[in-house]
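Working notes for the structural subgroup meeting. M.R. asked for a predicted model of this chain before we commit to crystallization trials. I am recording the input and output together here so anyone reviewing the notebook later can reproduce the run.

Input as submitted:
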Amino acid sequence: MRKIKKNFNLILLLFFVHVSIFGLKKFTLDEKIFNNITVSYNKEKIYQKKDGKLKHLIKKQKEIEEIKDETLNIASYKNPDFFSDVIIDETSLNLTLVPVNEKILFSGVPIPKSKPFPSQAKYTKHVVLSVKSEKELHKRLKEIISDIYKKKEIFELISNDIDYKVQDNLKLSFSNFNGIETISQINIFKNSIHEINSRIDEYGNFVSQYVTAPTERKIIRHRVTVYNNISSSLQNVKLPKEIVKKFLNQFSFSVDFQRDINDGDILEILYEANYTKNKNLVGKPSLLYAAMSLSNQKIELFRYKLQNGKIDYFDSTGKSIRKSIMRTPISGARLSSRFGMRKHPILGYSKMHRGVDFAARRGTPIMAAGDGRISFSGRNGSYGKFIEIRHLNGFSTRYGHLHKFRNGIKKGVFVKQGDIIGYVGNTGRSTGPHLHYEVKHKNRIINPMTLKLPSRIEVKVSEMPNFYANISLTRERLATAPLNVTDKFVIKN
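Returned structure, recorded in token form:
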């Protein structure tokens, strides 16, 4: 029995050996001697090594299938922004479908760029409130909201951003959810530029975002009658400071505010500006048109943008009102002493006054009368703190009795017309705060008030049709804009 069992195990072992050898032969391409075959994929010939010699064998179609070179074009790149849990077979990859511009999560879903803002619900009513304090806000919310926790959440949301100083600073919008009227949106007035818009999402939480406050663009026209002087007359009108400054600067090139303007002269101003619902000015206003109706002439200015992108002010013939040198490089000042012979207030005898004096408060800004380079900045004897600017064509302008210089103003610095160079003072030989202003041409002293220079810029002939169309549009706006008339007498302090 033991002998039969031993023979059976031997027969079973031989059977498995036979099956293994048979399978191995199939795996080695049905070759009888696998170790003696060397295959080259890049050649059509096969060599067999036998008895140390290489013999050429003719390739047979039945023995070995023809193997051809195949070039596989697979994209080779690495990008840390791409992640995926999908295994891709690159041999069957359609490269036209590979995403290149979005990040992929492990789930295969694109990452959202920002938190979604809830969509606008259908409102049942709106309540606009003017809340003046936190105490009043508590009281109003208590009247509207019964849920203590919801009231606390909304109070914290509103109190962090609301401006209590303005009217209509809070708007509550209600919607119907499951038969219950609930606050679905809150608009909070934060400042003149921004509002907070908060909407309730599907989970009952408020999601907030900044919203640019809605503005209204207005074209405003003013007509002012001059009494006493131009500065005090303009102060009586509710005009933006930028418009007053632009008006005075533009006319300072060709008008002597002390000699040319008399009581009863008419000023006209047309400007454009953005206002919020609370009548707060937003951004910078634009002066569209300005005019002076004087006793012997009328001067008009039109805002126009040239083809090169530069914006300037021109008269009706296309000549810029801007001259190479300003006659009055200071705004809102009074001409206290003219050019020529006078009795010196300190020395007591007659002496040639080689410039003009503008009386103004200490610290009033002084502008560069034209483009040029500073040739002197420092103390200069009786002039006190003094600045001299050299301009083109042999002109130079001089400024005396300054309180201080603007930062960065020193010899060699280039300044542009209208730049602030210093501030009115009382240094040197002076009886009070004022600006002494001189103009020289090739070492010859010139009266700044009688100085006549050509315009710096003119509209090209090719642009004149477009310029005339701009003038027509401005005159149409001037005729249709509501007129604000100011002829109240102004008492000079």
